Each structure stands twice: as structure tokens, then as C-alpha cells.
């Protein structure tokens, strides 16, 4: 567990950084308007999501912690690909082989092992419930 994590994180803006290392406390509307801070700085970093996961675990909420970790993995996946995967995960959105290919892609290209397992589990459940 990370030391000195205090909740809510937004009350401790020096504990939060963007993916490029800008502290939340350094982000102001003026800097955004002046172009000193770009739009890509205004996304959540996987490290912030991990901190949230550790807080959730500390509060006895392992499922919430797992959701934060799944989200942290997805920060490495392009947004358009996430939407494609989301659509494939709908019942009848893709066949079993395609879902397994997606799981392999998540694991191999993005190191998203939690999400890969989630997709494989969905593939098995869809097969059991005849949802292909």
C-alpha cells in the first residue's frame, strides 16, 4: 500500500499528478486558457487510480479497488479501441473467438491483464447463456 494516502484525494492536490507529471495543484483555468497546460494533461493518471484502489482496499471494498485497477489499465488503451471493445462485449456483439482475440490484445499490447480476464469471463458466460 502507498504511504500517506489521504482521502479524498482532491483535498490533497499535491498527491495527484497527471500522466505527464503535472501536479493537480498546478493546474489552473488561467494556465489552460493561456495554453500552458494542454488537454492531454487533463486526464487521470493510472497512479491516481491505483491510489484510489488502495484507499478502497483499506476501507474493505475489494470490488471497488478492482474496478479502479481495471480503469488504470484502460488508461493505456486508446479511447476509440475502448469503444470498439465495449461494443464487442454486448451480448451478440462479437463471437467467442473475437472476444478471446480482444482479451489477448489487451494482455499483449496493453498489459491489461485484469481486463483481459474480464473479457474471457464474459465470453464464457455468453456461451453458457447462449448469447452469441
Structure in a nutshell:
By secondary structure, the protein is mainly α. About 55% of the residues lie in helices and about 0% in strands. Helix 2 (about 45-60) runs antiparallel to helix 3 (about 60-75) and helix 5 (about 95-110) runs antiparallel to helix 6 (about 115-130).
Structural write-up:
The protein has 132 residues and is an all-alpha fold. The longest helix is centred in the last third of the chain and has 16 residues, at 113-128. It has two domains: 1-75, no CATH class; 77-132, Propanediol/glycerol dehydratase, small subunit (Hypothetical Protein Yqey, Chain: A, domain1, Orthogonal Bundle), CATH 1.10.1510.20. α2 (46-58) packs antiparallel against α3 and α5 packs antiparallel against α6. The radius of gyration is 18 Å and the shape is globular. The model has no long low-confidence stretch (mean pLDDT 92). The protein starts with 28 loop residues before the first helix and ends with a helix. The protein contains six helices and no strands. Helices cover 55% and strands 0% of the residues.
What order do the SSEs take from the amino end to the carboxyl end, as H and E? HHHHHH
- The strand count comes to 0
| Secondary-structure-derived class | mainly alpha
Q: If helices are DSSP runs of H or I spanning 4 or more residues, what is the number of helices?
A: 6
% residues in beta strands: under 5%
Shape: globular
Distance between the termini: 41 Å
Question: The biggest beta sheet, please?
Answer: none
Number of domains: 2
Overall mean pLDDT score?
Answer: 92
Specify the helix fraction band.
40-55%
Radius of gyration, in Å, reads 18 Å
| Sequence stretches where pLDDT stays below 50 over 5 or more residues | none
